[in-house]
Amino acid sequence: MELDLTWILLGLPMAFGLGWLASRLDLRQLRIANRQAPRAYFKGLNYLLNEQQDQAIDAFIEAVQNDPDTSELHFALGNLFRRRGEYDRAVRVHEHLLSRADLSQADRQRAQHGLALDYLKAGLLDRAEEALRKLEGTPYEGQARLARLAIYERSREWPEAARVAHLLENSGEANFSVRMAHYLCEQAREAVQQGDAAKALQLLAQATQNAPEAPRPRILLGQLQLAQGQAQAAFDTLRDLFARQDAAAPLAAASLVKAAQAAGQSAQALSALQAFYAQQPCIDVLEAMTTLAPNEPAEQAASHQRYLDHLQKQPSLMAASRWLNGQTDRAPLPAPVQKALENATRPLARYRCAACGFEAKEHFWHCPGCQAWDSYPPRRVEEL
After folding, report:
1. Is 198 helix (H, G, I), strand (E, B) or coil?
2. Was 370 annotated as part of a binding site?
3. 356 is in an annotated binding site
4. Closest Cα to residue 248, out of 131, 158, 351, 371?
């Protein structure tokens, strides 16, 4: 019995000592880990400030390994991967966050938004759309709808784009009436390509009614009416643009001339063009006026004189070229000179996107370069 008590008396201090030593070791390890995580984090932040993204990613990976439960480090890492174009790694980071059961609702929504952006940047539009739909009813709802709108416009899903634009307008984001009129115009163009002119006319009439201030539906409606042999209706539709002094009216000048000639309304069209030109001088309107001039020599000479008058209002190589080519009291221009003038004026006759600078021979309502709407001024490059 005495031996047993001796061992107990000896064992108690030993057990206490071993326990104390173990606790000290655990505390030391915890302190080391806690020191390592902030050190790696601040190292990564320093690399970011110095725009050294590769080293920042390595530092954040080290910090995540030291503290795998820190969601903010995961978000930082996912954003860095996306900015570097490593979309597959960004997707894995955000999917890992979404798989965590301990993630708060706010962080889960944030991770879902990050995942949607990963898919969007990677060009995986179907997956991006699915991820964006899951953000309905969250603080990211407005951003998600705008992203979905861009997806539908890019994939030319005009009815879906109109539905999302309607939701955005109802939520107070902006007025999308002109944008939705563009969607109807795009559907009308597709209907014309499919040979369904009646449907196209209906869509354009609806667009004109929904957005009376939008010029594109009226221009397309007038052009389609003219193509369908409705010359008088086309003339009335297009003349309204000039009567309103719409800035986009020059885009319809050539179509107005054709409609007026077909409907026997040349004098009325010339009057409308002259009234518009007096307020907004423009080379396209000037050429339309010249086309409608009567065939009498005196009238033709007076019409040709307009190019010289136009040069007094604003310098224009296009107008100068037209004036030189129309001179009848001298020998015609030598072929090399005429060709040189044509080459010099060709770039000036283009249209240029005000958002990205993309130039094209024809006017675009939806820029093929930057996807912006109504970014092309209805004037030639020379007149900007």
Report:
1. helix
2. yes
3. yes
4. 351
Report pLDDT digits (tens) over 199-228: 999 999 999 999 999 999 999 999 999 999
What's residue 58's pLDDT? 62
Q: Which residues lie below 8 Å from residue 71, measured CB to CB, with a gap of 6+?
A: 97, 100, 103, 107
| Among 215, 153, 145, 83, residue whose Cα is nearest residue 371 | 153
Q: 362 versus 84: which is more confidently predicted?
A: 362
| Beta carbons of 111 and 135 less than 8 angstroms apart | no
Contact (CB, 8 A) for 98 and 115: yes
Burial class of 348 by CB neighbour count within 10 A (0 to 12, 13 to 18, 19+): middle
Please tell me the predicted confidence (pLDDT) of residue 100: 80
353 carries a ligand binding annotation: yes
**Cβ-contact 214, 199 below 8 angstroms:** no
Mean pLDDT for 290-303 is: 67
pLDDT digits (tens, 9 = 90+) for 150-196: 999 999 999 999 999 999 999 887 889 999 999 999 999 999 999 99
Q: Is 282 within any annotated ligand binding site?
A: no
Dist. CA 288–CA 299, nearest whole Å: 14
Four-CA torsion 247, 248, 251, 257, nearest 10 degrees: -70
Q: How far apart are CA 10 and CA 6, in angstroms?
A: 6
